[in-house]
């Protein structure tokens, strides 16, 4: 069986450099289309040299201008630059297979796929990322993943960071895959006493409707072979494995910031219940002894 018949086919259609407000390294935002849904899934890439196979592969009638505009260039763009494949200022040049047009791996210009790469597979969460919700820790986890990819080592935890290399795959599957409207209804059920799993079940949705197969295809397209996966979710460890193309070589824990420093991070009754449910019902590998609020029992609801 070929790979494409098992995994969704993805294609990176554009990539752009994003200078960030954090003072960390520039990131490269990759936008993907795929043959499974019509959503614009993303990869937030730390490291200019991590390259998408589908974006960089030469296309029919491709011009250097076309390639620079879609983001298939080496080094850095500057006013007046004429070649995507050559950065004169940094003395970098991409090589391509003359028959297939595929980018050829070259240690000077392209991240070695054998390197272990810090990876986070993140699902969109409008509320946690945009309206300061303290019902979940999605926004905090996104920030923390980026922070760890930028640094070489975190002194408090001794976690080895990405030192400027890493990939956050950002999947558009809001509300554990049930969509924002259903998620808002689930929040009302939570205010009525359900936990996050019970609320989904009451709405006749699975506890977790997410599908990470597109994420796997995106990582393979980015030529990430050995992933150090940032997660507490045992399901995700399995889903970042697709040997021999993609191997999860290590799990790096996502520790809530409030557990590292009680003056920082999210503090709310809701986040305590959310983390408790993740541990007790979803098998998440969070192990710190918790001083969480007592979970309210709502067994009468289901
Ligand atoms: Zn969230």
Automatic annotation (TrEMBL):
Documented EC number(s): 3.5.4.25
Keyword Hydrolase found: yes
Reaction catalysis annotation: GTP + 4 H2O = 2,5-diamino-6-hydroxy-4-(5-phosphoribosylamino)-pyrimidine + formate + 2 phosphate + 3 H(+)
UniProt record, GO biological process: riboflavin biosynthetic process
GTP cyclohydrolase II domain residues: 99-239
Listed InterPro entries: GTP_cyclohydro_II (IPR032677), RibA (IPR000926), RibA-like_sf (IPR036144)
Keywords recorded for this protein, A-Z: GTP-binding, Hydrolase, Nucleotide-binding, Riboflavin biosynthesis
Pathway as given in its UniProt record: Cofactor biosynthesis; riboflavin biosynthesis
Gene3D superfamilies for this protein: GTP cyclohydrolase II
Organism domain of life: Eukaryota
Any GO MF annotation of the entry: GTP cyclohydrolase II activity
Similarity field: Belongs to the GTP cyclohydrolase II family.
Protein's UniProt name: GTP cyclohydrolase II
Species per Swiss-Prot/TrEMBL record: Tetrapisispora phaffii (strain ATCC 24235 / CBS 4417 / NBRC 1672 / NRRL Y-8282 / UCD 70-5)
Gene name for this UniProt entry: TPHA0M01380
């Amino acid at each position: 069986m070929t790979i494409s018949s098992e995994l969704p086919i993805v294609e990176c259609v554009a990539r752009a450099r994003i200078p960030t407000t954090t003072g960390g390294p520039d990131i490269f935002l990759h936008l993907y289309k795929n043959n499974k849904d019509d959503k614009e899934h993303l990869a937030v890439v730390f490291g200019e040299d991590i390259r998408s196979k589908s974006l960089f592969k030469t296309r029919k009638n491709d011009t250097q201008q076309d390639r620079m505009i879609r983001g298939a260039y080496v080094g850095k763009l500057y006013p007046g630059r004429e070649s995507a494949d050559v950065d004169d200022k940094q003395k970098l040049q991409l090589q391509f297979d003359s028959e297939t047009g595929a980018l050829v791996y070259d240690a000077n210009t392209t991240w070695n796929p054998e390197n272990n790469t810090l990876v986070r597979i993140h699902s969109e969460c409008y509320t946690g990322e945009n309206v300061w919700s303290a019902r979940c820790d999605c926004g905090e986890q996104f920030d923390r993943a980026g922070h760890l990819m930028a640094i070489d080592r975190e002194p408090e935890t001794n976690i080895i960071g990405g030192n400027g290399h890493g990939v956050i795959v950002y999947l558009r599957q809001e509300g554990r895959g049930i969509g924002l409207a259903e998620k808002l209804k689930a929040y009302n059920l939570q205010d009525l006493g359900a936990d996050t799993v019970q609320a989904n079940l009451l709405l006749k949705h699975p506890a977790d409707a997410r599908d990470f197969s597109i994420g796997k295809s995106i990582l393979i397209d980015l030529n990430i072979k050995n992933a150090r996966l940032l997660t507490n979710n045992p399901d995700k460890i399995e889903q970042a494995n697709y040997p021999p193309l993609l191997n999860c070589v290590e799990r790096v824990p996502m520790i809530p910031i409030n557990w590292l420093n009680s003056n920082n991070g999210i503090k709310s009754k809701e986040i305590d219940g959310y983390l408790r449910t993740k541990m007790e019902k979803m098998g998440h590998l969070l192990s710190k002894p918790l001083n969480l609020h007592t979970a309210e029992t709502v067994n009468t609801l289901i």
